[in-house]
TrEMBL record:
Sample GO molecular function, one term: [acyl-carrier-protein] S-malonyltransferase activity
Protein name: Malonyl CoA-acyl carrier protein transacylase
Catalysed reaction equations from the record: holo-[ACP] + malonyl-CoA = malonyl-[ACP] + CoA
Record family assignment: Belongs to the fabD family.
Source organism per UniProt: Pedobacter rhizosphaerae
Major enzyme class: transferase
Residue ranges of every copy of the Malonyl-CoA:ACP transacylase (MAT) domain listed in the record: 5-293
E.C. number(s) listed in UniProt: 2.3.1.39
Entry keyword set: Acyltransferase, Transferase
Residues of the active site: S87, H194
């Protein structure tokens, strides 16, 4: 069984998607996106600077566009048995699986990026990667800290990203290092994604999600909040709303996909970060990047 997986923020690079633009369908979709966004995001993707590409209102739609347009260009060879996306990638997965239209998916991603940006500006906050500790230890230490700090991204065994206030992250990093973490590395991010500090963004995005039509996908979508497969549009919506303040349970998602029969994981979009995370869960499973012939 083939699982298609879609990357999240951080996978971007200058030149992403440029090779796709030669394809007539891809060109049409990029131009449609430029129109919806109101600036030529394709120009920034293909030949902008790292700084331009790093802005949240550019990064999120850029990664979404690269992933979704690549999936669309694959045509009949794109036959997913199951899909999942990491954080932002969940929106790409839903469009690729025909649960969301291209236009609606892009509008939601823009709304999400803007809402997150506002929440970040309202309260300085950050994230940190914790390496070499069991998830339970990280969870326990975070829960004992008297400041906002929570497990946010369960990326793979031995790698958990925490999210919260500056004070909460600093306290947690000190305690986790003391508890034997190989590294507690603060990340260069704009805010505390997937934490309670994203509540204002969640409220803003909730209205947009509720007003968007979601259909039954062509295959199960394994969602971030609980790593389980969904096909019911109402449940998919509910989980999407919870996603901004909930943790990304990527380790558990890969485990569930493997348990449900996945034999091959194909990463659709920029980079190969997710393939590396999948290999940390199962060394035997086959991984690859989607490419156009």
């Amino acid at each position: 069984m083939r699982a298609y997986i879609f990357p999240g923020q951080g996978a971007q690079f200058v030149g992403m998607g440029k090779d796709l633009y030669e394809n007539p369908l891809a060109k049409e979709l990029f131009e449609k996106a430029n129109e919806i966004i109101g600036f030529r995001i394709s120009d920034i993707m293909f030949g902008g600077t790292d700084e331009e590409l790093k802005q949240t209102n550019v990064t999120q739609p850029a990664i979404f566009l690269h992933s979704v347009i690549l999936a669309k260009v694959l045509g009949d060879s794109f036959k997913p048995d199951m899909v999942a996306g990491h954080s932002l990638g969940e929106f790409s997965a839903l469009v690729a699986a025909n649960a969301l239209s291209f236009e609606d998916g892009l509008r939601l991603v823009i709304a999400r990026a803007n809402a997150m940006q506002k929440a970040c500006e309202a309260q300085p906050s950050t994230m940190a990667a914790i390496l070499g500790l069991a998830d339970e230890v990280v969870e326990q230490i975070c829960s004992g800290i008297d400041a906002v700090v929570v497990p946010a991204n369960y990326n793979c065994p031995g790698q958990l990203v925490i999210s919260g206030s500056i004070e909460g992250i600093d306290l947690a990093c000190a305690k986790l290092t003391e508890a034997g973490a190989k590294r507690a590395l603060k990340l260069n991010v704009g805010g505390a994604f997937h934490s309670p500090l994203m509540e204002p963004a969640k409220i803003e995005l909730q209205a947009a999600i509720e007003n968007t039509a979601i259909s039954a996908p062509v295959c199960p979508v394994y969602q971030n909040v609980d790593a389980k497969p969904y096909t019911d549009p109402a449940q998919i919506k509910e989980n999407l709303i919870k996603q901004l303040t909930g943790a990304v349970r990527w380790t558990q998602t890969v485990e569930h996909m493997l348990a449900d029969g996945a034999t091959e994981f194909v990463e659709v979009g920029p980079g190969n970060v997710l393939q590396g995370l999948v290999k940390k869960v199962s060394r035997e499973v086959q991984t690859s990047s989607a490419t156009i012939a």
